[in-house]
């Protein structure tokens, strides 16, 4: 098992499958009267959050506590960070306190990689800038497998603000590793230029060898991909990260890329609708779709605890 989870690229197919299988075992605990395991008793997990979060922070806290770990929640607001303390000095403080694992959310892309060089414990990336969010990808994959029975061979459409989405990046890496095909859908201004330019039909950029089957594609027309899609993952439009006008108006964006009831009816009968949250209801997703039986949005929150329990269990449980 790996020591850190900084990127979905850290996971090969075998390791990712092990985490998903372990998450399924952890989910079985939810039905027990006593939901705790003694596995991480005596271990300390620090939630180091430099950005506001509800689902992710609470999910990691619940996961660690269900494994009997001691949990320290660190918020940048009201701490020495607000007085100018650097990430390195904060890391050295946590190291001195004997943190066995640090779960970090930070506005700077790459912060978890830097942190891992300063602490002896395991580092888990809970979101770094617009870079990655690997545990969100794991819980999404677990949700797909729970609903559809498999990941290999699924057609997944990730729709919306791909440019600013760390969720999209981690999902592309993990889902293609597990055998799914991913299509990124959105206005040209919100699809990263390097991704759009690198992808050509039928091939994936070669790394010194023969081109292999391409598992990632790009489309600027949502309606054209719905009929052949098993999973539609809608992304929140991250207005707080946008400095420029990426589309004419919210109304125009919703008209072209919002998932409403007529568009949902174009999906195959078995297809599911996902959203990492928080949602802009009425913009990227209609309330009727978000609350429909096809929606897995509430399941994703519950599955997040199981997936993060699996990550912490496998990172820390096997150590002496």
Automatic annotation (TrEMBL):
Record domain Aspartate/ornithine carbamoyltransferase carbamoyl-P binding: where: 3-145
Reaction(s) this enzyme catalyzes, per UniProt: carbamoyl phosphate + L-aspartate = N-carbamoyl-L-aspartate + phosphate + H(+)
E.C. number(s) listed in UniProt: 2.1.3.2
MF GO annotations: amino acid binding; aspartate carbamoyltransferase activity
Pathway entry: Pyrimidine metabolism; UMP biosynthesis via de novo pathway; (S)-dihydroorotate from bicarbonate: step 2/3
Pfam families named in the record: OTCace, OTCace_N
An individual GO BP term: 'de novo' pyrimidine nucleobase biosynthetic process
Example of a GO cellular component annotation carried by this entry: cytosol
SUPFAM superfamilies, A to Z: Aspartate/ornithine carbamoyltransferase (SSF53671)
Binding-site list for L-aspartate: 83, 166, 236
Keyword Transferase set for record: yes
Keywords, alphabetical: Pyrimidine biosynthesis, Transferase
Domain Aspartate/ornithine carbamoyltransferase Asp/Orn-binding: 152-315
Binding site for carbamoyl phosphate: 55-56, 105, 133, 136, 277-278
Assembly information from the UniProt record: Heterododecamer (2C3:3R2) of six catalytic PyrB chains organized as two trimers (C3), and six regulatory PyrI chains organized as three dimers (R2).
Function field: Catalyzes the condensation of carbamoyl phosphate and aspartate to form carbamoyl aspartate and inorganic phosphate, the committed step in the de novo pyrimidine nucleotide biosynthesis pathway.
Family: Belongs to the aspartate/ornithine carbamoyltransferase superfamily. ATCase family.
Listed name of the protein: Aspartate carbamoyltransferase
Organism listed in the record: Pseudosporangium ferrugineum
Lineage of producing organism: Bacteria, Bacillati, Actinomycetota, Actinomycetes, Micromonosporales
Gene designation: pyrB
């Amino acid at each position: 098992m790996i020591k850190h989870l900084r990127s979905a690229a850290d996971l090969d197919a075998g390791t990712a499958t092990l985490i998903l299988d372990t998450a399924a075992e952890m989910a079985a605990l939810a039905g027990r009267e006593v939901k705790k395991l003694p596995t991480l008793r005596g271990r300390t997990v620090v939630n180091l959050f430099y950005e506001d979060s509800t689902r992710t922070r609470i999910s990691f806290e619940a996961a660690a506590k269900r494994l009997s770990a001691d949990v320290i929640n660190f918020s940048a607001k009201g701490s020495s960070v607000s007085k100018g303390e650097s990430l390195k000095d904060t890391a050295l403080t946590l190291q001195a306190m004997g943190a066995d694992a640090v779960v970090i959310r930070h506005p700077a892309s790459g912060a978890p990689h830097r942190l891992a060089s300063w602490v002896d414990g395991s580092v888990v990336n809970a979101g770094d800038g617009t870079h990655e969010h690997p545990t969100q990808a794991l819980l999404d994959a677990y949700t797909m497998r729970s609903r559809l029975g498999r990941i290999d061979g699924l057609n997944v459409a990730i729709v919306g603000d791909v440019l600013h989405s760390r969720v999209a990046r981690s999902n592309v890496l993990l889902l293609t590793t597990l055998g799914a095909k991913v299509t990124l859908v959105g206005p040209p201004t919100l699809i990263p230029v390097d991704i759009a330019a690198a992808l050509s039909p039928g091939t994936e950029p070669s790394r010194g060898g023969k081109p292999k089957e391409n598992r990632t594609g790009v489309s600027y027309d949502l309606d054209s991909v719905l009929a052949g899609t098993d999973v539609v993952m809608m992304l929140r439009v991250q207005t707080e990260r946008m400095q420029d006008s990426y589309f004419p108006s919210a109304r125009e964006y919703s008209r072209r890329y919002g998932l409403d009831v007529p568009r949902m009816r174009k999906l195959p009968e078995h297809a599911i609708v996902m959203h990492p949250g928080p949602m802009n209801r009425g913009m990227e997703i209609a309330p009727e779709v978000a609350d429909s039986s096809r929606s897995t949005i509430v399941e994703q929150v519950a599955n997040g605890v199981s997936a993060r329990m699996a990550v912490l269990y496998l990172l820390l449980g096997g150590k002496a």
